Amino acid sequence: MKIALIPCGATEWSEQRRLLGRAALPLSERGAQCAAAWAAKLAGAGLARIVHAPDELCRATAKLIAKRVGATTRADESLREVDLGLWSGLTEDEFSARYATSYRQLLDAPLSVSPPEGENISDAAERIAAGLRKRMRRNGGRPIGLVLRPIALSIARATLAGGSLSDLWNGAPLAEPLLLACEGAAAPASRG
Questions:
Q1: Partner residues linked to 92 by β-bridges
Q2: pLDDT of residue 186
Q3: What is the mean pLDDT of the chain?
Q4: At residue 34, does pLDDT exceed 70?
Q5: Which fold has domain 2-181?
Q6: Structural domain boundaries of the chain?
Q7: Contact at 8 Å (CB) between 46 and 70?
Q8: Positive or negative, the Cα torsion across 14, 135, 184, 121?
Q9: Which sign, positive or negative, has the C-alpha torsion 147, 148, 154, 160?
Q10: How confident is the model over 88-146, as pLDDT tens digits?
Q11: Spatial distance between the Cα atoms of 84 and 67, rounded to a whole number of angstroms
């Protein structure tokens, strides 16, 4: 099964390198331009459906790409971004200064972290992995695209590629779609 992992398009916050979390943000002009370029790269992938997280940013990115590649779109609640609570909107420098202990913990053992007023990252990883397994079973082997926000995208990449979630925060963010060939249903990623 071919899966295209597609980052949500850029926003004003992502251009400022702020943590998005679940903040309701519109696609920036640059984000729309990138999504159009990604659609051109994905045109030959045979995507019939693009599944996206339920927020407007992912929906707008998915619809723009789907229109250009001739695919349908569908929201999936299980693929929503990790709720970063009070960390949402902070730059990485602000985050590391205000929440130094949590920042170090995220670098060393991200699955043990719970953002204040947010969602435990381990719980979010389990939710996203379960959603991916369900989506793959339902899709019947047809190529699909997945549009996700940054942390959910990192979790999906580790889950689908068999990587470890222990370096979730240290992994390079995707700057463009990544095509993966996956066998069977998505297995949970290694925690170590």
A1: none
A2: 45
A3: 91
A4: yes
A5: Rossmann fold (3.40.50)
A6: 2-181
A7: no
A8: positive
A9: negative
A10: 999 999 999 999 999 999 999 999 999 999 999 999 999 999 999 999 898 888 999 99
A11: 31
